[in-house]
Design brief:
single chain; alpha+beta; 3-stranded antiparallel β-sheet; 4 helices; 54% helix
Length: 109
């Protein structure tokens, strides 16, 4: 199950820990979610490109040992601010869903 709008938040969070390639970002999300969140390339890369167009991340092209060009993504200052805002919005959303489901609501906004 993928919640609409969660991928940008997850990407920004992973990149807050340091620059990374697309495959490594997807792997980190998949592994940390216990294999529940496995985004396909057709979803991941358009999201990365959208974040880049919005100035939230930048990409540096690198050549690997085989001569292939790979892009390594890095969070920008604007991306750091967006991540903080997205975290607050996600907490509010998840608490609202929990309230509707009648589950205990923890944490603060």
């Amino acid at each position: 199950m993928h919640f609409k709008g969660s991928l940008p938040l997850l990407i920004l969070h992973v990149l807050a820990e340091g620059p990374s390639h697309g495959y490594a970002i997807a792997s980190a999300i998949r592994e940390r979610s216990g294999e529940v969140l496995a985004f396909r390339e057709g979803t991941l890369y358009p999201t990365l490109h959208g974040l880049e167009q919005r100035g939230l991340i930048t990409a540096i092209e690198e050549h690997d040992a085989d001569g292939r060009v790979r892009r390594r993504y890095r969070l920008t200052e604007a991306g750091q601010h967006a991540l903080a805002q997205e975290r607050v919005a996600w907490r509010r959303y998840s608490q609202a869903v929990a309230a509707v489901l009648g589950e205990p609501v923890g944490g603060t906004t």
